[in-house]
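Supplementary notes for students who missed Thursday's class. We covered one full example, reproduced here. Read the sequence, then the structure, then the short commentary at the end.
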Amino acid sequence: MASNDFRAMVQDISAAYDVRKGELSALRQQLHQMLDEFKKEKKEELKKIGDERKREISALKKRVEDIKHDVHDSLNDFRKTAFAEIEKGAKDRKEEVSHMLKTFRKEVLDGFRHERENMASAWQELVSSMKAKRSGKTQGDQREPSYERVASHSKKARRVKTKAAKSRHHNLR
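Structure (token representation):
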């Protein structure tokens, strides 16, 4: 009896071992299947993410190219506009300078011309007046100025000027 019990117990243990072995094998097979499915899903997700990133990068590259193109166009427009404004400004300044020169010529130079003409006519009047005064005087008073009188007069004028200059120089110290 004891040997039958022992045999039954060994058979029970062996059957339990086989059952456990089968369950472990089934679990192992399920685990491998789950891992394969997980790998497959992750691979598909990574491919989708990679494709999405490629599209995003492509879209970003296109946006960068569009921005470059827009900036290039904007700079060209700015250059054209700026050059046009500079040329217009230069033309305006040229016209202003031309107008100023015309005004200067008209006002200043014409003023000088009129002043010179007035001075010339005043000089002529003075000369005429002096001639008239001289013609009314006696023969002895109408003498022409001699070189000696003119020279002595100019020497006196120089001495006076020299003294005045020395005096100013002395006062500046």
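Commentary. Residues 138-142, 146-150 have pLDDT under 50 and may be disordered. The two ends are 153 Å apart (CA to CA). If anything here is unclear, bring it to office hours.
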